[in-house]
Specification:
seven-stranded mixed β-sheet, four-stranded mixed β-sheet, 19 helices, Nonspecific Lipid-transfer Protein, Chain A, 2 domains, Rossmann fold
Amino acid sequence: MKAKVNEQVSSSKLDTFCVGLYISPSVRENVSTKGPVMITQMTKDVRAADNAATKAMAIFRLLLHDYHPRDFAISFWDGSQWPAESGSPRFTLAVRHPDALRRMLKTSANDLSLSEAYISGDLDVVGDHEAAMPMANYLMGRNWPAVTVLRIGKNLLRLPRLDRLRRKNRQAAELSGELHSIERDRQAVTYHYDVSNDFYALWLDEQMVYSCAYFEAADEDLENAQARKLDYICRKLRLRPGERLLDIGCGWGGLIIHAARKYGVNALGITLSKNQAALANQRIGRAGLEKQCRVELRDYRNLNHSNCFEKIVSVGMFEHVGESQLPLYFQHAWRLLRPGGVFLNHGIANRAIDPRPKGPTFISRYVFPDGDLVPINTTLRYAEEAGFEVRDVESLREHYTLTLRHWAERLESQRNEALQLVDEPTYRVWRLFLPGSAYGFAAGLLNLYQTVLLKPDEGRSGLPLTRKDWYLDP
């Protein structure tokens, strides 16, 4: 029988065939009992798969007809490849089976179909993930002529539907309750941040700062850049010993620990993540700072003390608030600050010229459910309507590009360790999210702003005339 198989199908194709890309496990189990009849059917299926690969390549040629220079290759399940137009490819898009095209082209409204095909393993990127993002944006934003759509559809209909085992995805977020209610926001934060403290520790810096670092040079290491960011924030706030500092969305406590240790403040951090709160308080205890700072599991809307804090900071939490809640967000911060107090708000913004996405996206389903980015002019308007005076706005866009690239590289280098802590689809979510976000900042599609807001004391700011103290060597 072995000789007969070799006459009908090459050994390399049979090997690929028998690992499950073309047939289900039940068919493989029956090969030995069905004899030549089954082998004949297998041969027909292999030939059909070869034909399917030809149709798949035709679909990509239609999809990417106007995409130049195409600096990447596309490989197919049968070993065939469409090489890059010139030179070595920056990456290879690996199409694992014919159904992958059906999944990735399910809808062109946003990035969800393409992302889900990647998360499930139907598609893969071999090489530079960030380099793949322009191609993905092109596919999502292109409007093809009707004749091209018909030709693509004709080829898609001819691709076989395959009986195979699918990898179970990381479950998309399913939140309940009123949008941006306290309980629903707790669910959203838990979905993202309570994956695993150890998972985040693999690729964040030693202090586990999960926000944009502040680089002095593009080749600086992440540890130094994150330490500089923490100190830069403290200097922007102009912290003084004995002041009361509130950190809204404090993460694993890196900023309040730094502020208490170096600036002598009394700091309260709040978060909705149980994992973050537990580890943050452990770290505070190990640092011997229990008398100066603590972290509570609390929503900012449940803090009801007026004029309680001299300084407030929010780093990387603002994106979860939602535009509908921004008036309340800034009003609440205003009430918590004493007159003359300063609020530093650090958050990602989208561009005012970009429309809001229609329907669910990769980020809203698998990364930050209910996340809501707004343009900086919208943020400043709500802050001023609450009574704040805008004292400084700084873009750190390039810094976030560098930060995300560090995170992506560190996660990639720790793949085996990561898969001991999370499943493969979860790992792939972050493997897509980090370089995708790096591309967004590098291309100017996203921005990151630190905004310094003042609650004036009858017109008195109490602030220096210049910013030179922000830039002194710490």
